[in-house]
Amino acid sequence: MHRALATLVCIGASIAPLGWVAAQGVLRGTVRSASGTSISGAMVGIAGSTLYTQTDGDGRYRLSAVPSGEIRLRAAAIGYSPAATVVTLAGGDSATADFTLEPSPLELTPVDVVSTKLPQFGDHPATSVAQVSPDEIDRRAVNTIDEAVDKEPGIQFLNGQINIRGSTGYVQGLNSRVLFLVDGVPMNQGDRGGINWDLVPVDHIERADILKGAGSSLYGSAALGGVVNVTTRDVPAGLHARVRLTGGIFTDPPHPVWGFRDKPGLQGGGDGMISYGTEIFGASVTGGARHSDGYREHDSQNHWQMAAKSRWQTSPKTRVDVSGAWADDRYDTPLSWCTQGECDDMGQAYQPFKVDTGGRAPWTHSRKGYVAAQARTVVSERFAWHARASWFRTDFFDQRRDTSEFGISNRFGAEVRVEAHPDSTRSVLVGGEATFSDVTSDVFQNHSQSEYSAYAEVEQPLSRLARGSARLKAGARIDFLAVDGGSLTAVVSPRLGGSFPVGSHGAAVRASVGRGFRAPSLAERFVDLVAPEFGLRVVPNPGLRPETAWSFELGGRSAPSLGIMRVDGALFWTEARDLIEPTLIVTPGGPVIQLQNVAEARIAGVDATLLAAIDRLTTSLSYTYLHTQRRVPGSANAPLAYRPGHQVKLSADYSLGRANLGADFRHASRPERIELEGFVDPRRVPMNVLDLRAQWTRGPLELRLLLANALNYVYNLVPQTLAPVRTTTLTAVWSH
Amino acid sequence: MRSGSLAWPLLLAATACGGGLQPEPICGASLIGVCGTIRFRGTIPDSTDNVFVAAYASFPLTCTELIANRQPFIPGSVSYTDSVADYSVALQPRTYAWVLAVWKKVGTLTLTPADTALLRVAGYYRNPADSTQPGVVTVPDGSAASDIDFRVEFDSLRPATDFVTCTAR
């Protein structure tokens, strides 16, 4: 590791050897599947170097400033076996290398950009990584990316809040212990720290990578429980257009006594995208809208969105990307379902499809958008730097029955990092990041928060300790936090991990240990309102400290067995301190709720997935077991709230030439505990949801049919909030 | 592959076998608490926000106890627009000295003694042997105390001070 750092310094001092500059060429080509279909988003590059890129929507790639000589080029894409080829390139010349990748449903993380901020070609990540491929996004006919991420093992969404292996629970949208990135740019809200999953139009998204463990050593705050990185589609060369139309119908309640309207609810919308690009420059614009009547009373939603992206190869060595998105939502807010007497209860103790009379009036107007610019310069095949700047703005207005609330927040971010590859087996990443968030609100008041950080990570082979390509990764990050310009709080997040191949057929063991943290959001510190769900005042707590946690993981994956199945599994263990929870306290003026650093907690469990593929059928079966324990001085130990002990997910896809049939089943056991039990309706049940889907493609036209919650299983994941009922959706996509 | 094939029918069978939220009558079998019928008399005041049922394990003596010892702490509502309404309240199994209906005026509760300005005692369950006294109700383990019926008089809503002392004790 010392050698690597010394090499980084030396390379930095002599940034570009003149001889290297003189002997360069261009590599270009395509990546296609065995059936001839172009593969977009495939990673192509020279492993162990700074020279890598992704294919565009036509499966084309271009690598400039490639040193002359014999080049060993690799290509990898989710769902395919990686491939490599050797190309001879003369200085000042160009060469073509086309790849044909074989479909391989058993291939696990063939390429990964989230675990180390650098692309990993077929290497085994030290921490579990899940991926949502472009095919999966298409097949699942989703409207927002969270609907696709929700199908991944060990992940559960609770009313829009993501839980990776039980990380977050449900905290009324006031924070997230998972960091959300769009093309590597952090996009958690500046005031509440939550995630807007509809920020980027789903048709704009190439794929999602999910780091299932503490990522704070590279990503800082909010990566305590994991990281979700959404990669948007690159702009292909030439003129392209795509139109997507969708329409759907919500099923009526399964029991007549729960009926609430005479006509079925409908939803529908449309998106359009147009792009034009050359090898040097490209730009795309996406726009669309959708409307939903909702599946409950007082549940309609109108959504408008726009997104744009451009790329500019300013020189053979430098590429600049500028992107942005804007979304506007106006939706009714069904705060909680109706309990007896709060509506026309039809003699029922509760009416899950109806809202209480206090909740009928509220609505929310939410606007959010971002603009981000990134530049990457490949100084040499051994050294590159990357810089980014971003601005993310959210603006909400909540109309309640008797009052209203608003909040406008900004999150400005900047990062500079350098990447060095002393040789083809080692890499060093060093970076610095600054974030400034502010909020103007009548419920959070006017406040700001700054975060400054520096991080480094080294990766190198363990040739003396293990055979093959065993690799060790070590890194650390220090973050300095300041609220309203006050004194700085420092948090250190180290991480050590390794991956150890077993045999030569793809089996591997991985292990990692790391410390993560999450800074309290401005909303958690300064919220001051009457919570409509409880009728209790929530009071500020400016003295909140960051939550911290040590996370351990020991995992492994088998080699393909009989060529048809493969297992990946992990044991995980997190010991958390200073967890922030809503706490009921009694003051002279009466009881109030305050967010406090009250709990220590343990989250341990097993996450295992069995993949199987034979002929046209591919299936995956995953099981996640969670054991949680919340320890608060003066209280008996108890499970953490909103963490189901058992989750099972089952997916199957059957290919019929141009058509594809599929199904997804999700089960989660009934959570043992919820927050503030006694103040909310405690009804809760296990989750058993079956989705059926079909896809048909012919030429530029694609039809997708989705029957979500096909068994019309009626359930809730958080108190008094009904989860979606059976919804039939037909989507048509035309691409040029 | 074989595991996947077996898992599908097993899980679908588990799903089909139920679970999930089901309709639940106000005085349903799963209730642990009290339930019964309320009869409404008189003219509903224009300023009415709602009517709710609450219970006290021991009779409150002060305004502070009236607010702090109320169960459930955040009460639900009872439909009051018809002359008769069924109601139920989920409560911990134990004995309750006072089960009453509370009328609430339009306004936001602060869950402090100041709330008494918005609340009135509208009626309460009475001792069958002596209707001038509140009736004692016992919620058994695992089930409900049913037939806890009483009357609400909109024309004679009574302030909390008729029952408790609203000064610090």
Could you please describe the fold and organization of this structure?
Chain A has six helices and 45 strands. By secondary structure, chain A is mainly β. In chain A, the strands form eight sheets. Chain A has a 22-stranded antiparallel beta barrel. A five-stranded mixed beta sheet of chain A has the order 11-16-17-14-15. Chain A starts with a helix and ends with a strand. In chain B, strands 1, 3, 10 and 11 form a four-stranded mixed beta sheet that branches. In chain B, strands 2-5-6 form a three-stranded antiparallel beta sheet, with no helix packed on it. The mean pLDDT of chain B is 84. Chain B has one domain: Immunoglobulin-like. Chain B is mainly beta and 169 residues long. The radius of gyration of chain B is 20 Å and the shape is globular. Helix content of chain B is 12%, strand content 33%. At the A-B interface, strand 37, strand 38, strand 39 and strand 40 of A face helix 1, strand 2 and strand 3 of B.
Summarize it.
The complex is a heterodimer of chains A (736) and B (169). By secondary structure, chain A is mostly beta strands.
What descriptive keywords fit this protein?
heterodimer, A: 736 residues, mainly beta, Immunoglobulin-like, Maltoporin, Chain A, 2 domains, 22-stranded antiparallel beta barrel, five-stranded mixed beta sheet, 6 helices, B: 169 residues, four-stranded mixed beta sheet, three-stranded antiparallel beta sheet, 2 helices
**Judging by the overall fold, what is the CATH architecture of chain B?**
Sandwich
Identify low-pLDDT runs of chain A.
4-21
Q: Which two chains form the greatest contact, residue counts included? A: A-B, 56 and 45 residues
- Strands of chain B, total number: 11
- At the fold tier of CATH, the topology name of the largest domain in chain A is Maltoporin, Chain A
Distance between the termini of chain B: 72 Å
The CATH homologous superfamily of the largest domain in chain A: TonB-dependent receptor, beta-barrel domain
